[in-house]
Design brief:
Number of helices: 11
Distance between the termini: 56 Å
Structural class: alpha/beta
Number of strands: 13
Bound molecules: uridine-diphosphate-N-acetylglucosamine
Strand order of the largest sheet: 3-2-1-4-5-6-11
Strand content: 15-25%
Length: 325
């Protein structure tokens, strides 16, 4: 029997779909029966991230920049209304942002505000923006709450902070401040890789681990698939209503760089030599999320414990060594 009822299939727009978080988010939605329209300009995104789902019948890809005005309206005219806009596209390098502050603000701030406004004008029910722990500039003793952000140290931090603040004040959509993400990640290694990826490469290439400073600095390491889970939740794609406001995405657990090195040695089943290098300029001593807001308002708890997440990540990099060398 034919029916003229509109399809109940959900449809989302993902910007930065060829990035690490964007591609994992896209795969999770396709697996869940959601149609995805993805946008990326390959500034830092990778074709290889799209490869697993590029031919999926529910996936459509547009190579374009989010800086062009009218992206959401144009794509919703082509594909139909969106249930959510998940905005993961960004300039992701802090050092690049120092060299190119205006370009960083254009992409991470001005384009974010434009996309947010467009989504709102079109009546899209949910908007999720990928924020960052870099929005917390001042050192805080203990876990940082969302209302303690401000005074970031880099143009990158500023671009994310001003965008989250705008989204929060608008009352529409939400900003998720990701702490230190780790997990499987494609792409050639670069000088600005996070510590987990760098340590993985060092272990697998039998090189000593480099610790900057005394190793007592601490971070809140969040598994990338937990970040994906948070985006789905915030975007109203996991059965709850979309969230509004700004939320930390972390574990609330603090791990020092020395503890990280010890965990990796334990997982690798070998003693790992360490080279101590001078402290990195501008390095934060401690960074830890207060996770109570997302937990109480969204019922969110990360699934992965660090040891297990590192072990999976190590296995993944062992099987995908081309991504580390
Ligand atoms: C991360 C982000 C940065 C952001 C900041 C804000 C990455 C790569 N960087 O920086 O963009 O501004 O959060 O919260 O995600 N370390 C070593 N040895 C190494 C590499 C790093 O000891 O070989 C140390 C660093 O000195 C640092 C810690 O490990 O103390 C974490 O470093 P990293 O993963 O680069 O992230 P953040 O410094 O937290």
């Amino acid at each position: 029997m034919s029916s003229n009822k509109p399809s109940a299939k959900r449809r989302c727009l993902v910007t930065g779909v060829a990035g690490n978080v964007g591609s994992k988010l896209c795969q999770a939605m396709l697996d869940d029966g959601v149609s995805v329209v993805g946008v990326d300009n390959f500034f830092s995104g990778l074709q290889s991230n799209l490869a697993p789902f590029v031919a999926h019948p529910d996936f459509s890809f547009h190579e374009r920049s989010i800086v062009e005005p009218g992206v959401v309206a144009d794509l919703s005219e082509k594909h139909g209304n969106f249930d959510a806009v998940l905005h993961m596209a960004a300039v992701v390098s802090v050092p690049w942002s120092m060299e190119y502050p205006e370009e960083t603000m254009a992409v991470n701030h001005a384009a974010t505000l434009a996309l947010h406004q467009e989504a709102r004008d079109l009546g899209v029910p949910a908007f999720v923006f990928a924020g960052s722990a870099a929005e917390y500039g001042r050192p805080v003793d203990g876990p940082v709450r969302e209302d303690q952000a401000g005074d970031p140290v880099s143009p990158y931090g500023w671009s994310k902070y001003l965008s989250s603040k705008h989204i929060e004040e608008s009352g529409f959509g939400c900003a998720l401040r990701f702490f230190n993400l780790y997990g499987p990640a494609r792409g050639k290694p670069g000088p600005y890789d996070g510590v987990v990826r760098r340590f993985m490469a060092m272990v697998l290439n039998s090189q000593p681990l480099t610790i900057f400073g005394d190793g007592g600095q601490t971070r809140d390491f969040v598994y990338v698939y937990d970040a994906v889970k948070a985006v789905l939740l915030a975007g109203g794609l996991s059965g709850r209503k979309p969230l509004a406001g700004v939320f930390n995405v972390g574990t609330g657990l603090s791990t020092s760089v020395t503890e990280l090195a010890e965990l990796l040695a334990d997982i690798a089943g070998q003693k790992l030599p360490i080279t101590y290098l001078p402290e990195r300029a501008g390095d934060l001593r401690h960074s830890l999320a207060d996770t109570s807001k997302l937990e109480s308002l969204g019922g969110f708890k990360p699934d992965m414990v660090l040891r297990a997440g590192l072990s999976i990540t190590m296995d993944w990099f062992s099987e995908n060594r081309a991504d580390l060398v």
